[in-house]
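Contributing new records

If you add data, match the layout below exactly. Sequence lines come first and carry their own label; structure lines follow with theirs. Keep one chain per record. Anything else will be rejected by the validation script.
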Amino acid sequence: MKMPAPHLFNRIWVKLSALIAGLVFLLMLLVFHLITLRQIKAERVQLREFMERTAMQIASIRLTAGDDIIVYQEWIKRILDTDAGKDVVYIAIFDRERRLLAYALNPQYLEIGDAALLTPEDEIDIIQRLSRGEVAAESWRDFDHVPVEIRTGRYSLGRVDVGFSLIGYNNRARRNLLINAYILAGAFAGVVLLSIVVGRRITQPLERLSDAMIQVSLGNLGVHVRVNTRDELGRLADSYNYMTRRLREKSYVDAFSQDLMLSLEHHRLLQLVTERIVGYMGAEGGVLILLERRGDGVTAWSQWAAPRGLERPVAEPLDEACASECLARRDPFFVRDLRCCDAFERLQARLQSAAGLRKIELLAPLISSEETLGFFLLGPENDGSGYDGDEIRFLRTLSSQAALAVRNSFLLRRLAEQERLQKELEIARQVQQSLLPVEEPRLDGLQVFGLCLPAQKVGGDYYDYFVIDEKRLGVAVADVSGKGTSAAFYMAEIKGMMSAMTHLIHSPKELLLRLNRLLNRNVDKRVFATMIYGVVDVDARTFTYVRAGHNPPLLRRANGSVSVHVPAGIGLGMAADDHFEAHTVEERLLLQSGDLLLLYTDGLSDAMNGRLEPLGEEQLAEALSWTAGSAEEAGGHLLRRVKEHAAGAEPHDDLTMVVLKIE
């Protein structure tokens, strides 16, 4: 929306100019009246006074000359020929009966055809009529006369009447009036122009402010008003600029917050922070650097710059003095204020080629929760004016927001990683549970109880049963290295191989030799597993097994004695086939009625309490010696003993066991 322009006569400068011009015009009129008109009036008065003096002089001469009228007549005619008589129309001397005694007439002021044709009678008639004021209306302003009485004592002897022309006077008056009018008009025109200039100069800042306020109402906060005065208008412009600057900064902060809320991806967020701060501060360029603590040292590294981005990360180690000085600062500061700035000079040299940043002028620490996460490096301002105190305070606000966003981004990444791991653990847990037996096998003369309790961090514990025939049962308990899905999928491979081979290979050693060969060929060398695998023959009452680096089985006899059996063995996937075969021994245990055999993982023997004290194999064997009842009851007794020892402490590893009891 565009605001309509005000009418010309509604503009302040027009009104102010008109007011100034009007006041000056009135003043000039007053001066014109006081000087010009009074001067003209004074000149007329002087002319009349001069004629009066002339008449009085003639009257005084007449009084002393007696009755010699002829001499008197000649004398007054000579007056007309002098400078004193240049404006005189006539001079007449009358007696007390108003008879004309003597006269002199200047016919050049009379509008008659030929003055030479005038007779004395005509001249006398003209003088008498003029002395009586009988003048044509159009000539009334061009003629005047002065009568002066000729007196001696209290007696009047007659009168002298001097008629004089005002034509010269009027011409001079009109000429003076015209000249002064021209002067007045020129001066008025100059005053009008001057008033327009002054009015425009006075009101132009107001118009700028008015236009700027309209732009503010339309949402444009970037209009800066320049007024080169230090008066009230200058202070008003400064107030406006300060107001719009604060409003602009507030809008920037609001927009910055909104952008940060909508940016979730870590790298994009940091690049957005860099671009926004450079744009808001009007800088030539800027770089966001993060601090990475490696041992005792600190390294500044970055891959976020604006307006030109970084193609590859830039890193520069900070020496101890520089790191200490920078980390001690809490507010934005200039590079020139650093005592130790060699590292930043090296960093500036690298950024100049990598990001086109010719100079680092200002640094703003990114501080969140009392921790300095990094710094924002700003180049010089685009206009070359330099950063003032208000801009530095605004940068501090932006850097505080940026620091919070950076910390939240790190936390979000950490949460996302934890969520990913949690999902992975859930998948691993599901895989692990799917690999475990659904129910216990049923063989006459043998009780079987198996249990696997996964810890919060899913491990690689695994147990399984393989029914070879009605009298023989294969039992496997394994612990795969690693955690999470990798361990779970490794378990799945082992289960698949075991399921395929147990019905074909009855010797536990031969089976594990084949399994080790397959694992060495197909599985990541960094992954290995420990396992105990054995076959229970119910009729022969034997347990033939191989211990591939696993926890040794515990055998509890019917009389309560417990023995530990530790045949040689190497973990699966840890050695070549011939080495594995040479160092793996197959052992056979003879079982009797009431004997109880425990196969387990280290999660049982290494279960810890709050003081990080493990249960240990000795206490596990002692707990086994006190068991009684079925295989399931024995397993329950062992589980309770482990929980008593843990005393509420969270298990750090899976807890897996298989209990076999000969009936």
